[in-house]
């Protein structure tokens, strides 16, 4: 008996050692957002299907992640096997050969189901370099009760003139209700995401075909003048320090008539934490009369494999699983359809269960389909992009310009002064970077 | 002649000291309070000071999401390890500079200090490449070496200042009695400089514990210390101040406790040689 137990234990130990010997451990660099945390909680299903792959998560603040991953890739460090990056990095890093091309995905992945705008944004010369985990565009979220009270009807595709009229009608400062909430906190991914998209919808562009900055153009002047006019007359106090999170809180507390921001916010403002969940309507990102451009805002947190990874096959298995229809169904079965990662696959928007559970689905899809990252502006541009310019220097330029805009919103300088300063800063940066 | 301090002046000085102390302490107090606030209260405007429903939810969430033990242990090993390594090199170096100093000793000390003036980012890529070639990225050993090198100038300077206060005659007497160099440093110099060595140790453990540039850049998972633990709770979308504060409190509490119990030695160490 004793011998049998010893033999059994020995055999078990051997099995453990053997399986440990074959198991590959992937290191995944990720940002801290709700969808990513949810996936970490659902990994059991992946381990059951792929017992030979283990995953270690390294969660980092967005900018720290970019910095570390850049260092790792540039030096060929090979510390990470999967990276969580956005539509800004993918075309730049893909072109530089830092990412593994994903041209031989397994047949059941159904790559043609990916939304065309997202697929385009994650490709270089038609080769996909990352798989989208969730995607977003931008749209208007507004209070239907306040609109009704003010006697206005929000069109499904309003112009900036409509938005201004609605903001004016809904503002009731005595009761701390502000007609419009927009980002004001400085940063290329903060206020410049909004102002970048807004400038696109005004027909502006960042650079002409010779890479000369265009921030002193009439279109930019008009964009900034209208932004300041809206925010200073109908916006909340202290708006120059408001980003996505601050505006989300204001809207959920019932202090905003309208909020123009990422479509992903729709799930939050109609969710259980929102005091106004039952009275939220949606409309497309505004455009200026006569300009056929709804801002071209597109972002998709995506999973990519760095060329320096030594475990590319296992990494590919993992990113295919994490961005598959199967994973979407897993989330839905565990936590309901509302929790499914949005904005990546057409099939999600054809699913009646999802459409019934997510009142914002239709407008999200419409907003995403209106995006063309190959032509962010109605004018010719030497760059691709969306609410950003897909060149490595844009992080620095966007943040510098964002600080000027934030200062103008805080009343420290006029819009013209801020744009003049922004033009000089951008021009200097482009000369330093060798574009001119 | 001693300066006469009137009771009124004394009260003003005390009040001023309290105000300055409170200003310095306020960020820590605010972090502590925020860690017990529900997320929506943590971002409320105007800010809520204490009148909210205190909750432990943030601590639960933080531990459930990320764990704590391995980060804490890595911080302990890296900070203590780098300090001990630094001491082994710095004590003989400071001895030489304090007791056998030559014409260029001061220049050498200044040059050592000048290395602290270079931005760390300037040497990130070379150090990363060296770590990669040696297979040391994401190891505690590499961080111990790097942090030791970063803090070495401070350790040498502090020890040099303490050693200068010790009369050279005592060491000479030990040599006359037949002590060799090793015995002189180990059995004569070190026991006399214990308070100085202790405060240097403490300060360096604190510096290494709080260091974030190298610990964030040279680790991924295996050697990740508490700085990496905190960094993961900042979120691009969704409220996070409560959880971030809870993670920060969990990271700073151990070092604050050590600092609190050893404040006398720390103050003595930091002001040693400054008041004569």
Instruction: Give helix % range of chain B.
Output: over 70%
Overall pLDDT score of chain A: 91
Radius of gyration of chain A over all CA atoms, rounded: 24 Å
User: Counting H and I runs of at least 4 residues, what is the number of helices of chain B?
Assistant: 14
Q: What string gives the helices and strands of chain A in order?
A: HEHHEHEHHEEEEHHEHHHEHEEHHHHHH
Describe this structure as you would to a colleague.
The complex is a heterodimer of chains A (436) and B (276). Chain A has 436 residues and is α/β, with parallel strands linked by helices. Chain A folds into two domains: 2-136 and 299-357, D-Maltodextrin-Binding Protein, domain 2 (3-Layer(aba) Sandwich), CATH 3.40.190; 138-297 and 392-432, Periplasmic binding protein-like II (D-Maltodextrin-Binding Protein, domain 2, 3-Layer(aba) Sandwich). Helices cover 44% and strands 13% of the residues of chain A. Chain A is built from 18 helices and eleven strands. Chain A has helices at 2-22, 34-41, 43-49, 62-74, 89-95, 116-121, 144-150, 160-170, 191-201, 218-234, 244-252, 265-269, 312-322, 325-335, 352-357, 361-369, 394-409, 415-432; strands at residues 24-31, 53-60, 82-85, 123-124, 127-128, 131-136, 138-143, 178-181, 256-262, 280-284, 299-304. In chain A, the strands form three sheets. Chain A has a five-stranded mixed β-sheet with strand order 2-1-3-11-6. Chain A has a four-stranded mixed β-sheet with strand order 8-9-7-10. In chain A, strands 4-5 form a two-stranded antiparallel ribbon. In chain A, strand 4 (123-124) and strand 5 form a beta hairpin. In chain A, helix 17 (394-409) packs antiparallel against helix 18. The longest helix of chain A has 21 residues, at 2-22. Chain A is globular, with a radius of gyration of 24 Å. In chain A, 49% of the residues are buried. With 276 residues, chain B is mainly alpha-helical. Chain B has a domain at 75-226: MetI-like fold, CATH 1.10.3720.10. Chain B starts with 6 loop residues before the first helix and ends in a 5-residue tail after the last helix. The model of chain B has no long low-confidence stretch (mean pLDDT 88). The A-B interface holds A 27, 29, 31-34, 37, 40, 56-62, 64, 67-68, 71-72, 74-80, 189, 238, 244-246, 248-249, 252-253, 262, 264-265, 268, 273 and B 40, 43-45, 65-66, 124-125, 128-129, 132, 137-138, 216-217, 220-221, 224, 228, 231-240.
